[in-house]
Design a protein that fits this description.
The structure is a single chain. With 477 residues, this protein is an alpha/beta fold. Helix content is 40%, strand content 21%. It contains 15 helices and 22 strands. A 7-stranded mixed β-sheet has the order 14-15-16-13-12-18-19, with helices on both faces. Strands 9-8-7-10-11-21 form a 6-stranded mixed β-sheet, with helices on both faces. The chain is globular and about 70 Å long. It binds NADP nicotinamide-adenine-dinucleotide phosphate (NAP). NADP nicotinamide-adenine-dinucleotide phosphate binds next to helix 7 and helix 8.
Length: 477
Amino acid sequence: MKLLNYIKGKFEEPESAEWMDNLSPSTGKVIGSVPLSGESDVKLAIAAAREALPEWSGMDPSGRAEWLDRIADCLEEKFEEIAYLESLDTGKPISLARSVDATRSVSNFRFFSKMIRDMEDEIYEMEDATNIVKLRAVGVGALITPWNLPLYLLSWKVAPAIGMGNTVVCKPSELTPLTADLLMRVIDEVGLPSGVVNLVHGNGNSGSMLTGSPDVDLVSFTGGTSTGAKVAQSASPQFKKLSLELGGKNASIVFSDCDLEETVKGVTRAAFLNQGQVCLCGSRILVEDSIYDRFMEMFVESVESMVIGDPMDDDTELGALISKQHLQKVQGYVSLALEEGGQIVTGGEPCLPKELEGGNWMSPTVITGLGTETRCSTEEVFGPFVTVHRFNSEHEAIEIANNTRYGLAGSIWTMDLEKGRRVAENIHSGMVWVNTWLHRDLRVPFGGVKDSGVGREGGKWSLGFFSEPLNVCVRHD
Ligand code: NAP
């Protein structure tokens, strides 16, 4: 599969004439090639977006909402193809690609279409004047996305961005370009006006050319914290609108009064969904001392029962890690855990389903015995690797949960809902679930605090981020 950039309504070879291999995470084999776009490609894409801006931003919001619906319909027709390509490209189980990635990609367009259709100007009356607050497009947006939830996150940005009248240039991760290409095919098929959505493939350099360009007005970035810092460094001096959705080291807090069976299921899912490669994953499990032994017995059994194997197999629960380099990073944390005084309770080894030699395989790994200050307990690993810690009081659980530079999410497991809410309100993060995890309502704000990011997207927060409010005050006495 030889992918092309999508600029001004046309699939184009990169002017750089450079290409990268796209590798399958589960086999290590080459599955295609991706343009390594250079400066002129990025400039052409930005110019196309700039040219399309006046007409697109001038269109009535309900007209733009209709386009979002057309895209959603066309994506829905390609539901199985999305799931197949996402599983092939990321190594995630196809069942997950269906239930999460394909489903959400469609619903992101439908959800924002409805929000934009329902949007109204705000009116504030004074005795002698009327204020009208209108949301207008920001301009040209750069939308930069990571490899873990490729189309899920790209559609989460494209839908509100163009719905609010911006035109955009997308830059997906070089590791997972396939569904971004599919979205461009959909956009082409429905006949969206050319230049409204453009896409350049490439690596971090292509991304930094976008964020540093004076012709880009807005940057929505999802990725790692250290990359986020570089994006901020390049975009902030030009006062671009900037949203940064970054890493996490989220705690799952298990109280002794939880429903143990449901909690073990929920905590296992939170730890290992997508091989632990979700920014929201509960990678630190804090367990109240009085139920620690019973919890561990059930948790380890639950982890060891997970089916690892061919991502295309319907029964597979755990697939491959994204790349060799990432596998090595995660394995490095297993060695570090031992150096830091931890014990491996299960996993820790590379595991290779025989038929898939060459892929990036690792068994789900549970580490105990580590201090809560250690690197393994506080740094984002972003793989099938969790640490488990004991606590004795509500206060101690909160202290451990907050003892990291990240502040994205968390979950609390207790039958005492008042305690659940009380503890949740003391966790320094953007989102906390009680007796559930990754239970998403698209109307609520999504994002983190501290090193997990700046700003929020989701619902009216996305509409706010992808627009500029204009206040018109008309005196009438
Ligand atoms: P990453 O290495 O930071 O890359 C993210 C995107 O930025 C990719 O498209 C990447 O391109 C591009 N990029 C790299 N360097 C750049 C630069 N200097 N300027 C502009 N763009 C640049 O992250 P990742 O490894 O793909 O994803 C994993 C990380 O994302 C984890 O830390 C995870 O927690 C985080 N994440 C956060 C959320 C959230 O909502 N908070 C959601 C999902 C993931 P290339 O990949 O082609 O280099």
